[in-house]
């Protein structure tokens, strides 16, 4: 058993990571440090806003009541703590990657596979959730513009009384086609999307505040603290993406200073926008109306104004920006599987690059089909919770990893160190556990089964086929 | 064998003539230089715009005279003025009539010096010519006795890519030039908002390059079995964050020629430049020959024929 454990905890040498992606094709190479504080903050904001805020209130308000405002603050605080820990782990590995690669380089193979299992949820399932949210706004827009809506049978999951969520499936197929052709989101597109997202949310706040009705806040926390933390678990989903700041570390000017400030700034911006939206929403509409409301923000605006135009504008903005989020999420998912495939823990099929399109076509198709199935047949609240737990556990591992790494490799040069060690990572761990403990048991159970499946895969296939097992992870260093 | 050079009427066509001479010398071919003038319109009423016609004829003659001065004395060359509705149609007619095997054009004056830029005629021919089209970079010059020393075949391991390499190998052997098989691994930037770092695309490019290197080795083995060999064989993979960088990465010298295939989306017998070949052509620092699939097939067959 000991050799097996020894194998399971083998780490991927950093120089191998560097050589694998060699910048000039001959191994090694530094990326230019060109990203300053403002663009880095925008990366964080752009990667975060838009994943959840457009539809999460319909799921969270029934759980927490108007106290959902505090759920946002709690989720934001936990997200901020984890992002700081994540930045230290990312900074300890000189080559940039995903949390999978950071875990592989610092905590060992089996941990990396566990993190990979979480990332499949963080990316795949959130892609599905976002696509379902997109389909709500699409229906809203169609209704406003053409007086026509896609019938429930084709726009609802079976649990919602439909057959399949077709718009969500179509969106995912579209994104997959774009990715196969080799589209990727540029920094400019991200900047435009950030502006659109913030603009429509600000529009929501400005117009929505005219519908302020203090009576709606009367029963502030009908389900007490448990409701608030339960909702925080659902809402945590809306903070997925904040970690993108840390993964840009390799290109950041003066990362020790820029990184934490950018993470905290992005978090503050995102949290203030979310809280403002939440406050306005719960004040404008009685909490009973949130339950099952589709395209919530657009619906609230229309009720407040008594006309359809603000809802139309908001829906259009949501459709454009959610589309870009879905594209990036599916993209991220394919590249994570690609990395695992290159490390040998998935069949070679996943790292095959199509000669003509020069993109991992097989991998993209598999990812798209899987995400489309989730989006077509599962309800959004379940998808959001699964995303949250995946992300929370990944961050939990990262936070523990920071503590482990400080003990096992105290002299490792780190681009960034968590302020307030050891309190920060410990708080981060506790925060994650607290939010996880308030999720529905079914979510935790499904998550446990999923991780078990991935680990069984690892111990039956991955551990033997890993390129580290072959002893020479350098076959492509010619 | 004849090399046809298309001369523009209204500017000095030094680049096209220099390139034509170099190719004719390398392949030991005759030169045919042609300029196209539109026929009088409407037919039979030539007097109406006789003055304009005269002007056209005069400028065509001037272009021919200029070109004549540029052709070195030791190369057989003939000159022709063709009348046709459009320059591209006129050139193709002349090529058919004289059995030309290559069509040489200069770059548009709107392009960047030292890079290939399609003018309207080149653009037309790159979607319709049944014979290979050679484009010189803007401002191309070479010594009067220069020859092609190395032909680089752009190769991407897709269907039909081998045939182009074999075809180019045959031509390189005939010109006593070296052959280089080159692939370009372009790494797009990884969107940072995806949270997977800055190097995800590098990994994809590396994987693609590893595949393509295997295919390069296989196709060079194929070339080694040909009856007539190029003077040397080499392969290269250029890396870059864009096409320009990847193409620059493999290094270029005087006497280089780059060959690209035409897209499989187009008809077999005509050049149909795909988006990828088109990018390679536009960033090439050396003259480029674009080979239609039909022509590549015929040339590959000829290359494989026993000596």
Question: How would you portray this structure in words?
Answer:
The complex is a heterodimer of chains A (478) and B (307). With 478 residues, chain A is mostly helical. Chain A has a single domain, classed as Amino acid/polyamine transporter I. Chain A is built from 19 helices and no strands. In chain A, helix 5 (68-92) packs antiparallel against helix 13. Chain A is globular and about 65 Å long. Chain B has 307 residues and is an alpha/beta fold. Chain B has two domains: 1-143, Rossmann fold; 148-306, Rossmann fold (3-Layer(aba) Sandwich), CATH 3.40.50.620. In chain B, helix 5 (161-174) crosses helix 6 and helix 5 (161-174) crosses helix 9 (293-304). The relative contact order of chain B is 0.14. The model of chain B has no long low-confidence stretch (mean pLDDT 88). The chains are: A mainly alpha (478), B alpha/beta (307).
Radius of gyration of chain A: 22 Å
Amino-to-carboxy terminus distance of chain B: 18 Å
Helix content of chain A: 55-70%
- Considering residues with a beta carbon less than 8 A from a beta carbon on another chain, report the largest interface and each chain's count: A-B, 48 and 35 residues
Classification by helices and strands of chain B: alpha/beta
Architecture (CATH level 2) name of chain A: Up-down Bundle
Number of E-state strands of chain A: 0
């Amino acid at each position: 058993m000991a050799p097996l454990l020894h194998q399971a905890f083998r780490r991927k040498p950093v120089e191998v990571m560097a050589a694998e992606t060699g910048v000039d094709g001959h191994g090694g190479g530094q990326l230019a440090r060109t990203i300053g504080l403002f663009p880095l903050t925008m990366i964080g904001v752009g990667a975060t806003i838009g994943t959840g805020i457009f539809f999460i209130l319909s799921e969270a308000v029934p759980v927490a009541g108007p106290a959902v405002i505090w759920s946002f603050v709690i989720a934001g605080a936990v997200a901020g703590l984890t992002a700081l820990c994540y930045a230290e782990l990312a900074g300890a590995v000189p080559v940039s990657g995903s949390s999978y690669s950071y875990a592989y380089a610092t905590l060992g193979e089996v941990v990396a596979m566990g993190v990979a299992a979480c990332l499949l949820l963080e990316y795949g399932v959130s892609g599905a959730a976002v696509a379902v949210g997109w389909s709500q706004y699409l229906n809203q827009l169609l209704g406003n513009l053409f007086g026509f809506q896609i019938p429930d049978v084709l726009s609802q999951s079976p649990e919602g009384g439909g057959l399949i969520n077709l718009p969500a499936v179509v969106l995912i197929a579209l994104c997959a086609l774009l990715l196969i052709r080799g589209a990727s989101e540029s920094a400019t597109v991200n900047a435009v999307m950030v502006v659109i997202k913030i603009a429509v949310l600000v529009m929501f706040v400005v117009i929505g505040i005219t519908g302020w009705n203090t009576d709606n806040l009367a029963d502030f926390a009908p389900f007490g603290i448990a409701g608030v933390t339960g909702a925080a678990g659902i809402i945590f989903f809306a903070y997925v993406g904040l970690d993108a700041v840390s993964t840009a570390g390799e290109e950041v000017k003066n990362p020790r200073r820029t990184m934490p400030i950018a993470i905290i700034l992005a978090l503050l911006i995102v949290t203030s926008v979310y809280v403002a939206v939440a406050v306005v929403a719960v004040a404008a509409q009685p909490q009973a109306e949130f339950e099952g409301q589709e395209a919530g923000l657009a619906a609230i605006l229309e009720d407040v104004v008594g006309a359809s135009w603000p809802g139309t504008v908001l829906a259009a903005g949501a459709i454009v920006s959610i589309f870009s989020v879905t594209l990036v999420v599916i993209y991220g998912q394919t590249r994570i599987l690609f990395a695992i495939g290159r490390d040998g823990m998935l069949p070679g099929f996943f790292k095959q690059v199509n000669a003509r399109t020069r993109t991992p076509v097989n991998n993209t198709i598999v990812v798209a089909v899987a995400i489309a199935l989730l989006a077509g047949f599962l309800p959004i609240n379940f998808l959001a919770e699964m995303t949250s737990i995946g992300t929370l556990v990944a961050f939990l591992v990262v936070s523990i990893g920071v503590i482990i790494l400080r003990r096992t490799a105290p002299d490792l040069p780190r681009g960034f160190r968590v302020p307030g060690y050891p309190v920060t990572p410990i708080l981060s761990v506790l925060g994650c556990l607290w939010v996880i403990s308030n999720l529905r048991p079914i979510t935790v159970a499904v998550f446990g089964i999923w991780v078990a499946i991935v680990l069984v895969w690892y111990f039956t296939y991955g551990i033997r086929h890993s390129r580290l097992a072959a002893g020479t992870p350098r076959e492509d260093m010619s | 064998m004849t090399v046809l050079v298309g001369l523009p009427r209204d500017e000095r066509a030094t680049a096209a003539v220099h390139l034509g001479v170099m190719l004719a010398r390398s392949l030991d071919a005759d030169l045919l230089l042609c300029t196209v003038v539109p026929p009088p319109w409407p037919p039979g009423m030539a007097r109406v715009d006789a003055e304009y016609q005269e002007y056209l004829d005069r400028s065509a003659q001037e272009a021919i005279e200029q070109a004549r001065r540029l052709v070195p004395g030791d190369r057989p060359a003939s000159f022709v003025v063709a009348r046709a509705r459009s320059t591209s149609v006129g050139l193709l007619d002349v090529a058919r009539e004289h059995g030309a095997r290559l069509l040489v054009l200069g770059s548009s004056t709107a392009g960047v010096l030292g890079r290939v830029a399609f003018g309207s005629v080149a653009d037309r021919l790159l979607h319709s010519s049944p014979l290979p089209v050679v484009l010189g970079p803007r401002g191309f010059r070479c010594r009067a006795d220069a020859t092609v020393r190395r032909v680089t075949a752009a190769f991407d391991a897709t269907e039909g890519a081998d045939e182009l390499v074999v075809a180019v190998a045959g031509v390189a052997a005939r010109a006593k030039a070296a052959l280089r098989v080159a692939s370009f691994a372009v790494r797009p930037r990884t969107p940072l908002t995806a949270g997977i770092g800055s190097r995800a695309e590098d990994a994809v490019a590396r994987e693609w390059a590893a595949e393509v290197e295997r295919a390069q080795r296989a196709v060079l083995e194929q070339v080694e079995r040909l009856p007539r060999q190029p003077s040397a064989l080499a392969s290269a993979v250029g890396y870059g964050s864009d096409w320009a960088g990847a193409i620059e990465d493999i290094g270029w010298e005087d006497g280089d020629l780059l060959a690209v295939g035409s897209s499989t989306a187009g008809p077999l017998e005509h050049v149909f430049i795909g988006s990828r070949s088109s990018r390679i052509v536009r960033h090439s620092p050396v003259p480029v020959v674009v080979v239609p699939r039909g022509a590549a097939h015929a040339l590959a067959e000829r290359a494989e024929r026993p000596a």
